[in-house]
Specification:
Blueprint lengths: L3 H21 L4 H5 L2 H4 L7 H16 L6 H10 L6 H12 L4 H31 L3 H9 L20
Helix pairs in contact: 4-5, 5-7
């Protein structure tokens, strides 16, 4: 055991030394550009444009018929985030600093309940849309990757549902 401890310590020191060197070096431009959203200068995407693209993608992929259009429109509109979400998030960010721990926990609990209600609304809309599809369309819809069809690339926790 006496031999293992100095070996572990030297490994930790070496790791810290290399880690410090990596931190001291500037980030490559490509890597830095990939993290723009962390600095807040990510371009804002128009929700209406995104909804239109989602609807067109579903029309094309599922080969929807004209009589399925109302179900598609209801489904796509139900997936839109609340219009004031961004404003609420900004306002809450400033308020959190002045909150006590129990107040922050209550706020988190309310936020979780809101997210659960949003999920229930979106799940119900998805099931209503799904019920309007033919068996072949259901199979195609089932094969679509979740989170906006990104296949795990940048899906994150935003967005929702299929399509």
């Amino acid at each position: 055991m006496k031999f293992t401890t100095p070996l572990l310590l030297s490994g930790a020191i070496l790791t810290l030394g290399l880690g410090g060197a990596a931190v001291a070096q500037p980030a490559p431009a490509a890597q830095e550009a990939g993290h723009r959203h962390e600095r807040g200068d990510r371009p804002h995407r128009d929700p209406a444009e995104m909804a239109a693209r989602r609807a067109q993608h579903l029309r094309d992929t599922l080969q929807l018929t004209p009589n399925q259009e109302p179900a598609l429109n209801a489904f796509v509109s139900s997936m839109a985030p609340p219009a004031d979400r961004r404003d609420k998030m900004r306002a809450a960010r400033g308020e959190r600093a002045a909150m006590t721990t129990p107040e922050r926990l209550d706020r988190m609990k309310a936020h979780m309940a809101d997210r659960q209600a949003q999920f229930a609304r979106r799940a119900e809309a998805t099931m209503r849309f799904y019920s309007q599809l033919s068996p072949a369309q259901k199979k195609a819809f089932d094969a679509m990757p979740p989170k906006g069809g990104r296949g795990g690339k940048g899906g994150g926790h935003r967005g929702g549902g299929h399509g």
